[in-house]
Every structure is written in structure tokens, then in C-alpha cells.
């Protein structure tokens, strides 16, 4: 009896629970996201640093080998054209000149003897005391002695030139950027002992990221705040292997010896510096989930991922390439929480 009553009560409770309606579900509103407009990466002002260099930088070296006898300059000195910078030990070179002079004297004596023999042979040939073939042999000997004399004279000129090359002189006016040769050091012909920055135009060496087009003009800010005009003179033919950057040289208009060589100046460039498919977005808008970098574009209240290729960063902006258009809206913060097709609400910018 008690079991039947308990079963009846449980059945009533189950029927009551089943008949109770579930609570209504409250639909969540789409989350707010901060968005920014995509910028044309080629029209933004670009700021880079550059190094002041001379228009002509000449590596200096001896044209003959030997031991450095004297060093007359130090790094940083201003030198005049023709000023002596280094001197080699000339003892071996002096002996070379003397040997060449002796060879020339011997060649002169041999030539004089051959000329005398030829003269006597001609007299004998006129009197029919010798044959024409013998006369030709004497003429041949004279030509040979003349050739040997010319070779000896050339060797003497080379020896004298080598002796003159033992004195290294500045090819032009300028400043010695680096001096590495030391007295007592034995150097080979062509081994650099100094680097001369010739006086005249100064240039700014600037490195651009690979894929960028260096603008033809720009501006440099001097140490005193002056604005110096830059004109593109040279662009490297290949990208640097390590940094993947492109080296350029800009002529600094109106600046010659006033700029300190090796100093770093701030340069800025206006106009298009990249291709039309390059865009700039905030660094925080970039999202990486193992499938490559992407940005999240907002269209019709929903987000969609757009794969991009990163070119380079410029401060808080990153320059990318992808299927974007100028003016597109992308999510600037919290991209790690987004999913494709997710509904969002944009915050006022």
C-alpha cells in the first residue's frame, strides 16, 4: 500500500516537471569592436634614418709591396691633393733601379758594338771582300741589340716608377675616414691602408625595405634643425642579402663639407613609396593563427579574415599587401577573439 502511494506521488511530480515551460532564452547583442580605416601605404609620409657619406670615397693602397717605413697622417685629418701619407722602405727598390740602369748601359754598349760591326761589314761589302749574306747577318745582330736596348730602357722606367710608388700620396683633397697602415707593417700591392672621403658633395645613405620604390626626392633634418633637400642619385642593383633592404644614395643639395661624415640624420619622404596594392594598418590589427598573417575586415556588421603579406613596419603601423581597398574597415584590437562571420558592432572612431 505504501509503495503504491509513493509511486503515485513520484508520477505526479514528474508530470508537473515535464509540463513546466523552459525559460525564454535572451539573445546576446553583438560585441563592440574598435575599427580603423585601411590607409594607402604608398602615400603616407615615411621617416627613415640615413648616414652621411662622401660622394667619392677612395680606398688608398700602394701600387707595390713592401714594408711601411713612415706613416705621416692619422684618421680624421684633412689632407691636400698630393700630400704624402705613407712611405715604404726603398732599399730593395733602389737596388732594382741600379740593376736596370746597369742592364741599359750593357744594352747601349752591345748596340754600339753591333753598329760598328755593321759599318765595317758594309765597307767590306762595297769592296767585294764579303758577301751580301754576311752583311744581312750583321744587320740582324744590330736590330736584335736595338730591341734589347729598348727592353732594358722599359725595365728601367718600370723600376723608377716602382720607386716613385713607394710614396703614397693623396689623390685629392679630403678627409681620411680610416687609416689602418702602421710603420713596420709589410703590405702587398693593392692592400688598403687608408680610406679617403674626397671633398665636395655629401650624400645620405638610406636603406629601404625590399619591395619599396625609393622616391626621387626627400628632406633631411640637420643637427641644427635646418631642412636639407635630398635628390636620389643611386639605387643598388640588388637587395641586401641579410637585412633584405635596398641601399640608396641621396645627394644633399647645398651641403659640402659642413656635414660630419658618418653622422646619422633623419630623412623623410613624401609621395608614393610603394605599389598600389600596399596598405598600412595598425600593428595590433595583424592576427596570426598558424595559417599566415591576416586582418579582419568588417562588412555588413560581420567580420571576415583577409590574408595579407607583411612588408615592413613603420612605428605603430605595419605595411601589408592583400585583397584590401583604401577605406576598408578592419578590427584594430581583440582580433584573437573573432571568428569568420561573427556579428560585431563598431565603436565610434
TrEMBL record:
UniProt keyword terms in alphabetical order: Signal
InterPro entries the UniProt entry points to: MdtA-like_BSH, RND_pump_MFP, YknX-like_C
A GO CC term assigned to this protein in UniProt: efflux pump complex
Keyword Signal: yes
Residue ranges of every copy of the Multidrug resistance protein MdtA-like barrel-sandwich hybrid domain listed in the record: 63-195
GO molecular function, one term: efflux transmembrane transporter activity
Residue ranges of every copy of the YknX-like C-terminal permuted SH3-like domain listed in the record: 280-345
Signal sequence extent: 1-21
Gene3D superfamilies reported in the protein's UniProt record: 2.40.30.170, 2.40.420.20, 2.40.50.100, Helix hairpin bin
Record carries keyword Signal: yes
Family assignment from sequence similarity: Belongs to the membrane fusion protein (MFP) (TC 8.A.1) family.
Protein name: Uncharacterized protein
Species of origin: Thauera terpenica 58Eu
Amino acid at each position: 500500500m505504501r509503495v503504491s502511494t509513493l509511486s503515485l506521488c513520484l508520477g505526479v511530480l514528474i508530470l508537473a516537471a515535464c509540463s513546466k515551460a523552459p525559460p525564454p532564452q535572451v539573445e546576446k547583442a553583438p560585441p563592440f569592436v574598435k575599427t580603423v580605416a585601411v590607409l594607402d601605404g604608398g602615400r603616407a609620409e615615411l621617416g627613415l634614418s640615413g648616414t652621411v657619406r662622401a660622394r667619392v670615397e677612395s680606398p688608398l693602397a700602394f701600387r707595390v709591396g713592401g714594408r711601411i717605413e713612415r706613416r705621416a697622417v692619422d684618421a680624421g685629418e684633412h689632407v691636400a691633393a698630393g700630400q704624402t701619407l705613407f712611405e715604404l722602405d726603398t732599399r730593395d727598390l733602389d737596388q732594382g733601379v741600379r740593376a736596370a740602369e746597369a742592364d741599359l748601359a750593357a744594352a747601349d754598349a752591345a748596340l754600339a758594338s753591333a753598329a760598328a760591326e755593321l759599318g765595317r761589314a758594309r765597307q767590306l761589302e762595297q769592296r767585294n771582300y764579303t758577301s751580301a749574306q754576311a752583311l744581312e747577318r750583321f744587320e740582324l745582330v744590330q736590330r736584335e741589340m736595338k730591341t734589347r736596348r729598348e727592353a732594358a730602357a722599359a725595365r728601367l722606367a718600370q723600376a723608377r716608377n716602382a720607386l716613385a710608388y713607394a710614396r703614397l700620396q693623396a689623390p685629392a683633397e679630403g678627409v681620411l675616414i680610416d687609416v689602418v697602415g702602421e710603420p713596420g707593417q709589410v703590405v702587398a700591392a693593392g692592400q688598403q691602408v687608408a680610406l679617403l672621403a674626397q671633398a665636395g658633395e655629401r650624400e645620405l645613405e638610406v636603406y629601404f625595405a625590399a619591395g619599396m620604390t625609393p622616391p626621387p626626392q626627400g628632406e633631411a633634418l640637420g643637427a641644427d634643425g635646418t631642412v636639407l633637400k635630398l635628390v636620389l642619385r643611386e639605387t643598388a642593383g640588388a637587395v641586401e642579402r641579410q637585412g633584405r633592404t635596398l641601399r640608396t644614395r641621396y645627394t644633399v643639395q647645398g651641403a659640402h663639407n659642413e656635414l660630419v661624415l658618418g653622422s646619422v640624420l633623419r630623412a623623410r619622404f613624401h609621395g608614393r613609396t610603394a605599389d598600389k596594392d600596399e596598405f598600412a594598418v595598425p600593428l595590433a590589427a595583424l592576427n596570426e593563427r598558424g595559417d599566415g598573417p591576416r586582418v579582419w575586415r568588417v562588412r555588413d556588421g560581420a567580420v571576415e579574415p583577409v590574408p595579407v603579406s607583411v612588408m615592413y613596419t613603420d612605428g605603430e603601423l605595419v605595411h601589408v599587401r592583400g585583397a584590401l581597398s583604401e577605406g576598408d574597415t578592419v578590427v584594430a584590437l581583440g582580433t584573437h577573439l573573432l571568428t569568420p562571420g561573427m556579428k560585431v558592432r563598431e565603436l565610434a572612431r
